[in-house]
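Onboarding guide, step 5: your first structure request.
Type a short instruction followed by the sequence, for example:

Predict the 3D structure of this protein.
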Amino acid sequence: MDLIKALSDQYVKPELPEMNVGDVVKVSVKVKEGNRERIQVFDGTIIAKKHGGINETITVRRISYNVGCEKVFPIHSPSIVSVETVRRGKVRRAKLYYLRDKIGKDAKVKEKI
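The system replies with structure tokens like these:
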């Protein structure tokens, strides 16, 4: 077990911003297209956090052109450049899957003050 822990500690990112379910975040991702590489920003609400340690993932949901789009991001992946928290959300649940059925202003989470 110590060998696995030692290997995974190499790849864990030391400084991550505090992010919780319900927060609106901007996730900057490296996208490789042929021999070019660029950074693409995906901004939306965190609806789920899963696992822990090196395997930790967040599910981010946004609505673009009236279509809901969700992406699962491994937090400690080298392709994730940064995660910036835009707005804190006030929620009482660990998973916000009920937002999938909501449309428009109903799909927003109240802001934590």
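Each response can be followed by summary notes, for example: The chain has a mean pLDDT of 93.
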